[in-house]
Amino acid sequence: MDADTAVIGLGAMGSMAAWQLARAGASVIGFEQYGLAHDRGASGGESRLFRMAYHEGSAYVPLLRGARELWRELAELSGLPLLLPTGCLSIGLPDIPPMRNVRASVEEHGLDHEYLAPDELAARFPQHRAADGEIGILDVQGAVLRPELAVLAANQQARRHGARLLERTRVDSVRFEDDRVRIGAGGTEYAVRTVVLAAGPWSASLVPPLDGHLTVRPLVLTWFAPGDAGRYAPERFPAFIRDTDGVHLFGVPMVDGMSVKTGFADAWGDIAGPTAFTRDFDESRLWPVTEAVRRFLPGLHPDPIRYSVYLDAYTSDRTAMVGGLPGTDRAVLLAGFSGHGFKMAPVFGRIAADLALERGTGYDIGAFAPSRFIPR
């Protein structure tokens, strides 16, 4: 055997899995078709939101608690500023589903938060132009994550514990046998006991049954210059997410010294797959973001000073696949995080390590079962 476990894909999920596997004492070999912390997948963009009060539902809070502890641990081990505490402000009418989910999260799990009535929201955070009746809920444990640094830090920790990570080594085949997994990569065949499949938008090329169940979409991020930089500093302008009249807007404070990142989530259409990836966007496609910034963030110059394009893979139900790959007991699948997985990457990495080494985990991952898409 070349290793106990292989990890295919060393982006957010794969790097965290490699770290957790190696620190648990397993021998690990990792494969990444590009360089570590590359800018072609879903783990880019300089900053990402971390939030405990979750728009997608309160059932995520235990995972988010575990992830936050691991983020803090990884930052301490690496000495890198991976998690910047800013709070995360949710804005919307109190009765829309995302705001009901945020409120359920804080109430069911006793999360530290502040409820801001419309007049309080306007007085406390005048950078936002709220619509009539909109409230704010400030998730005190919300933060900004630094994705590229985080992926590097996790891979460095994996190597520190003995993992062998092969960069610029594309995996061409994965073959399951009774007592091993054979992996063809870079002209060499490797044998391992188990494999963690964390290939992001490329997952269907490794697991053909996923074809038709994963949709690849561009993730477009935009940066805007503030008129008064001091008003958008992290200590005055929390990370935020809002839903108003069908507009879903998120953003982070000025962490680069010159701009505020804000943009839409899943609003850019589908592409044929990773091979169709391009960073060339017609300027007119950015106009809806410009109009949203003009409407909701009047202190920002509404034309983006730059934009960047990444890739992510979406499932039809916008819920990730985390669990054993149906048809074998030698593979764990991490795929389809649908634009809201990065913040939970460390805990999903731990879950993958638990499943690969112990065949079980203490976290409730029933909702993420790959078998809902892949027949057993």
Task: Draw up the topology in text.
Layout: E1 3-8, H1 12-23, E2 28-31, E3 48-50, H2 61-78, E4 83-85, E5 88-92, H3 97-109, E6 113-116, H4 118-124, E7 135-139, E8 143-145, H5 147-160, E9 164-166, E10 171-176, E11 181-185, E12 188-197, H6 203-206, E13 214-224, E14 239-244, E15 247-252, E16 260-264, H7 287-296, E17 306-315, E18 321-324, E19 331-335, H8 345-358
Parallel strand pairs: 1-2, 1-12, 2-9, 5-14, 12-19
Antiparallel strand pairs: 3-8, 4-8, 5-7, 6-7, 10-11, 11-12, 13-16, 13-17, 14-15, 15-16, 18-19
Helix pairs in contact: 1-5, 1-8, 2-5, 2-8
Structural overview:
With 376 residues, the chain is α+β, with helices and mostly antiparallel strands. It has 2 domains: 158 residues, FAD/NAD(P)-binding domain, CATH 3.50.50; 188 residues, D-Amino Acid Oxidase, Chain A, domain 2 (2-Layer Sandwich). Strand 1, helix 1 and strand 2 form a beta-alpha-beta unit. The longest helix is centred in the N-terminal third of the chain and has 18 residues. It is globular. The two termini are 27 Å apart. The model has no long low-confidence stretch (mean pLDDT 95). InterPro entries: FAD-dep_OxRdtase, FAD/NAD-bd_sf, MTOX. One of its GO terms (molecular function) is flavin adenine dinucleotide binding. This is N-methyltryptophan oxidase. It comes from Streptomyces antioxidans.
The best one-word shape is: globular
Distance between the termini: 27 Å
Helix content: 10-25%
Q: Tell me about the biggest sheet? A: 8 strands, mixed
Order of helices and strands: EHEEHEEHEHEEHEEEEHEEEEHEEEH
Give the low-confidence spans. Answer: none
- The total tally of domains equals 2
- Give the number of DSSP strands: 19
What's the CATH first level of the largest domain?
Answer: Alpha Beta
Number of helices: 8
CATH topology of the largest domain: D-Amino Acid Oxidase, Chain A, domain 2
Tell me what the CATH architecture of the largest domain is: 2-Layer Sandwich
Please state the average pLDDT score: 95
The CATH fourth-level homologous superfamily of the largest domain: D-Amino Acid Oxidase, subunit A, domain 2
Structural class: alpha+beta
GO molecular function, one term: flavin adenine dinucleotide binding
Pfam family, one: DAO
InterPro entries: FAD-dep_OxRdtase, FAD/NAD-bd_sf, MTOX
Protein name: N-methyltryptophan oxidase
